[in-house]
Fold Exportin-2 isoform 2.
Amino acid sequence: MLAEFAKNPGQNWKHKDAAIYLVTSLASKAQTQKHGITQANELVNLNEFFVNHILSDLKSPNVNEFPVLKADAIKYVMIFRSQLPKEQLLQAVPLLITHLQAESTVEHTYAAHALERLFTMRGPNNTTLITPVEMAPFIEQLLNNLFKALAFPGSVENEYIMKAIMRSFSLLQDAIVPYIPTLIGQLTHKLLAVSKNPSKPHFNHYLFESLCLSVRITCKANPITVSSFEEALFPVFTEILQNDVQEFLPYVFQVMSLLLEIHDNSIPSSYMALFPHLLQPVLWERTGNIPPLVRLLQAYLEKGGATIANSAADKIPGLLGVFQKLIASKANDHQGFYLLNSIIEHMPPESIIQYRKQIFILLFQRLQSSKTTKFIKSFLVFINLYSVRYGAIALQEIFDSIQPKMFGMVLEKIVVPEVQKVSGAVEKKICAVGITKVLTECPAMMDTEYTKIWTPLLQALIGLFELPEDDSIPDDEHFIDIEDTPGYQTAFSQLAFAGKKEHDPIGDAVGNPKILLAQSLHKLSTACPGRVPSMLSTSLNAEALQYLQGYLQAATVQLV
């Protein structure tokens, strides 16, 4: 077949097409989407075939000649990428970049897809096989050709090209910074165009991922540049919000969160102007909006809790209204707690003092109506964060103001039996520090009927440190109905490159909660000598006592 093609390429190109198909079929033994062909037939010399028959089509100066053979050649590189040596792949990269200019939709789409797949290949040490340094000579041509390819008829919203743009940004990192001013203009122009009638979900997703990468890469090197991104993006975002483009709202909220989180501890006026609109009930009716909107409100609170308290105090009830709506939902109650925890952590205490009791009453109503494991875990983190932020006495007083002896009931019925279920390093740390404060900084725990809970609470805390997490879920929870969502709703699509760093509200103030417990117990025992050792010796089990001795030794303190 190849001989026939060689006699008259113009007439007999179909013979070569058939030959490549035959080689591909015979050589393929096992294939995955991630790696292409993973096992090849040893009887077929893939490298030799690449050099003798594939490379010539890729090197052809006229990218529009024999588009079927060009597409075959590109596909060959793509599916045998795990079998071909790196030097041949590096040889293919500039050729594939050239083929992005081909008029054939199949050809330039294959070229974009092949580049994207090559850029995700892993090399030694878990790094990318093709490095930014190796790509340096081709960066400008790669970016130019990818964006030009989006102008071809039929490829205006080509998801493979947009995915290749995203992957190029991710691979090249700092190397794209000089081109960002031009690229961001092209991306926002494209965003404005597709927002008029969103029809390609994958294309839109990769477009927003590319925007996030542009922001992250540039602002990592120079955080001040965040304002230039806001200038470019806010007009488009405003139009999307005003026109209520439902498919794009979750994405817009994520990108805005990313931008706001880059700022120092202040909120620009452009964000404050938008703040009241984010509390509109209609936005919270759509499930896809909830995770990104909560994150955005958390960013507002983190960067400007005091600003909101001073210049938007009338919006605090609206903020708590959002919390109330979320807490009532089994599907979204954890999001309500994220918001509540940020309010407790970042708002000035005096700005929410009048609302605190009502917050606790709402939580108890939900506990009584439908107590789920997820809710209990979030509730435990919240009350312990409250203890950390406002002190253990404030926690005891607010419980007992709702109902006498309520504090003891919560400790006995919820904290002691359930704290083992808390998961996550930060969440466990919050609970450990909060419980330590209750044990050692709350006089009522030593001098009232609450004293009988002191040792079980200490035992539960040592269990939180030392025992495996209790991930069991009660049998009856399997049958709890998650709320039915009426009709079709835009789902929430998490942007990988808009990721949020895990936040530790306690931070470096407490390095090791076990040492904190030992030091706090030592301080308590010096304040009331003899009491703590006698309480431990009478009712703490031997294993827990042994662990506690270890903490005391590590902290180089002892009980008196």
